[in-house]
Amino acid sequence: MSDFIRKINEKPSFEKENYFKGYQFLEKNEQIDLDYIDMSYGHDYYQIDTEATHIYYILDGHGKAEIAGEKYNLEKGVVVEIPKNTEWAFRGKLKMLEISLPKFNPDTCKYTRKNDL
């Protein structure tokens, strides 16, 4: 495409088999992530990112989230903001856009407990 227009790749940029597939739009950007997530099941563990805030826009589907000990229903049109240092997990079949600021770094993400949603 170009430096200004992006199209989703046919092959996922990252995936957890049977849980979700992710497609990065801004691979070359060093400051922010913008990803399309096709979640078929959810996260296997709760997580805490010590550096990044994650913002999700739910495009389609239904699911559940637990964020900082509170449970929420997820559906089309919902925006979810997860500040850094907040424990969270999703469960469900969801299509969503994710913004991570700063860019996601697996070294700053801690997995805390099995997802029980």
Please write the string of helix (H) and strand (E) elements.
EEEEEEEEE
State the CATH topology: Jelly Rolls
Number of domains: 1
Spatial extent as radius of gyration: 14 Å
Please outline the major beta sheet. Answer: 7 strands, antiparallel
Mean pLDDT: 93
| Span of the ends, CA to CA | 40 Å
The total beta strand count reads 9
In terms of DSSP E residues, the strand content is: over 45%
Shape: globular
Helix content class: under 10%
SS content category: mainly beta
- CATH architecture grouping: Sandwich
The CATH C-level name is: Mainly Beta
As residue ranges, the low-confidence spans are none
Task: Write up this protein.
About 0% of the residues lie in helices and about 55% in strands. The chain is an all-beta fold and about 120 residues long. It has one domain (about 15-115): Jelly Rolls. The strands form 2 sheets. Strands 1, 2, 3, 5, 6, 7 and 8 form a 7-stranded antiparallel sheet that branches. Strands 4-9 form a two-stranded antiparallel sheet. The mean pLDDT is about 95.
Short précis:
The protein is mainly beta. The chain has strands at 14-16, 20-24, 33-39, 45-49, 53-67, 70-75, 79-82, 88-101, 109-114.
List the helices and strands and how they pair.
Elements: E1 14-16, E2 20-24, E3 33-39, E4 45-49, E5 53-67, E6 70-75, E7 79-82, E8 88-101, E9 109-114
Antiparallel strand pairs: 1-2, 2-3, 3-8, 4-9, 5-6, 5-7, 5-8
